[in-house]
Write a structure and sequence with these properties.
Largest sheet: none
Distance between the termini: 67 Å
Number of helices: 9
Structural class: mainly alpha
Number of strands: 0
Radius of gyration: 23 Å
Number of domains: 1
Helix content: over 70%
Shape: elongated
Strand content: under 5%
C-alpha cells in the first residue's frame, strides 16, 4: 500500500526533471537553427565588441559588464536568503504541515514527505546559487578581456587579432549570460515546485506551464521580434502599405 501512496509524487518528480532537463536541451538544439533571444543577443554582443575596438574610452563598456555582474550578485544573495528560509521551515516542518492542512485542495501527506519536498526545493535553489556565482565569475573574466582589448590606434595588432578578440569576448559574455539564464530558469522551476505542496498533479500542470512560458519568451516574444527586425527598403515599403 506504501508504493501507490508515493506514486503520484514520484511521477511528479520524474515529470519535473524531464521538463527541466528536456527543455534545456531542446532550447539549445532549436536555438542552433532558429532565431531566439540567446542567438540574437550573441550577435549584438559581437557588434558590441567590434565597436569597442574602435574607441579608446571603454569606461561605458566596463560599466555595462559591472552592472550585469551586479545583477548576478543580487540573485546569488537572494538565493542564500531563500535557502535560509527553506531551512528554517524545515526545522519546524510540523507547523508547516498543520498550516497547509487548512488550505483547500491540499493533499494530506506525512511530515517526512513534506520534509522531502522541502529538501527538493532547497536543492533547486542550491543549484541556482552555484549557477549565479559561476555567472559572476564569468563576467569577471569578461571584464579582464575588455581590459586587455587592443586600443584603436595600435598598429602592431592585425585585423585578424582584432576579429579573434571580438569573437572571443562576445563568446565569454554570452556564456555568462546563458549561465545567468540557467539560474533564472531555476527560479521559474523553483516557483513551480511550490505547487507540489498543494497537489502533485497540480505540480505537474504548473511545471508544464513554466515550460510553455519559457518557450514563448525565448522563441516567440515581442522583444525578440523587435531585436531581430532590421529595416530595409522592401520592409519599409511593405510597412507603409500595411499602415
Amino acid at each position: 500500500m506504501l508504493i501507490p501512496d508515493f506514486l503520484p509524487d514520484l511521477l511528479a518528480v520524474i515529470w519535473f526533471v524531464l521538463c527541466w532537463v528536456g527543455y534545456t536541451r531542446y532550447s539549445h538544439w532549436k536555438g542552433l537553427s532558429t532565431p531566439c533571444l540567446s542567438s540574437v543577443l550573441h550577435l549584438y554582443r559581437q557588434d558590441w565588441m567590434r565597436r569597442l575596438l574602435l574607441r579608446d574610452n571603454r569606461i561605458a563598456d566596463a560599466s555595462v559588464i559591472g552592472n550585469l555582474e551586479r545583477n548576478a550578485s543580487f540573485f546569488a544573495s537572494s538565493t542564500l536568503i531563500i535557502l535560509a528560509g527553506i531551512l528554517t521551515v524545515l526545522g519546524s516542518s510540523d507547523r508547516a504541515v498543520s498550516l497547509l492542512a487548512d488550505l483547500p485542495m491540499v493533499v494530506q501527506v506525512t511530515q517526512s514527505v513534506s520534509e522531502l519536498k522541502l529538501l527538493c526545493l532547497a536543492i533547486v535553489f542550491v543549484y541556482a546559487f552555484f549557477t549565479f556565482s559561476w555567472c559572476m565569475r564569468q563576467y569577471n573574466f569578461a571584464a579582464v578581456l575588455v581590459g586587455s582589448a587592443p586600443m584603436a590606434g595600435e598598429r602592431n595588432v592585425t585585423d585578424l587579432e582584432r576579429q579573434a578578440f571580438a569573437t572571443r569576448a562576445a563568446r565569454v559574455i554570452s556564456m555568462a549570460a546563458n549561465t545567468f539564464n540557467f539560474g533564472l530558469r531555476a527560479y521559474y522551476f523553483g516557483m513551480a515546485t511550490l505547487a507540489w505542496f498543494i497537489n502533485p498533479w497540480f505540480f505537474m500542470l504548473v511545471t508544464a506551464g513554466v515550460v510553455l512560458v519559457l518557450y514563448q519568451r525565448e522563441f516567440h516574444s515581442d522583444v525578440l521580434a523587435v531585436m531581430g527586425y532590421t529595416p530595409t527598403p522592401e520592409s519599409e515599403a511593405q510597412k507603409d502599405k500595411l499602415e
